[in-house]
Amino acid sequence: MSWQESLGDLFSATVNQQSLEEAAEMMVSVSEDDLEYHNACVNTLNLAIQSCKNGNNETLLLINKSGYQVHSTEKALEILEDFLTIYLNEYKDATE
C-alpha cells in the first residue's frame, strides 16, 4: 500500500471530524500492541510531511477527502506535524 493510500485511510478512519488528540488515542489503542502498525503510522505521516514540504498538493487533497479540511499545503504541513507529535507523545505514554 502506498503512503498516499495509508494517509487517506488513516485520516478517514481516525481523524475525520475528531480532534487530532482523539485520533492519536485511537491509533495508539492499536499500535501499543502492534509495532508494525506503529511503524506504518509514523512512516506514513513522515512521508506526507515531506510531500507537503515539497509543495505537493496531493497531501492536501487526501486530508480533505477524509472530511478534515485544510486550505493550503502550509496548513496541511502544520496539521501533519502536530498529528505526528501528538501521536508519538500518546504512544510514549502508553508504552512506558
Q: What series of H and E elements makes up the topology?
A: HHHHH
Largest sheet: none
Radius of gyration: 12 Å
Query: Roughly what percent helix?
Result: over 70%
Shape, per Cα inertia axes? globular
> Using DSSP, what is the number of strands?
0
* Strand coverage percent: under 5%
Question: What's the assembly state of these chains?
Answer: single chain
Counting helices, strands and paired strands, the structural category is mainly alpha
Task: Report, as a whole number of angstroms, the end-to-end distance.
Answer: 30 Å
Q: Which parts are unreliable, with pLDDT below 50 for 5 consecutive residues or more?
A: none
Number of domains: 1
Mean pLDDT level: 92
Number of helices: 5
Secondary structure blueprint with pairings:
Blueprint lengths: L2 H13 L4 H12 L3 H19 L4 H8 L7 H23 L1
Helix pairs in contact: 1-3, 1-4, 2-3, 2-5, 3-5
Fold and architecture overview:
The protein has five helices and no strands. The chain has helices at residues 3-15, 20-31, 35-53, 58-65, 73-95. The longest helix has 23 residues, at 73-95. It is globular. The model has no long low-confidence stretch (mean pLDDT 92).
From the structure above, extract its key features.
96 residues, single chain, 5 helices, 78% helix, mainly alpha
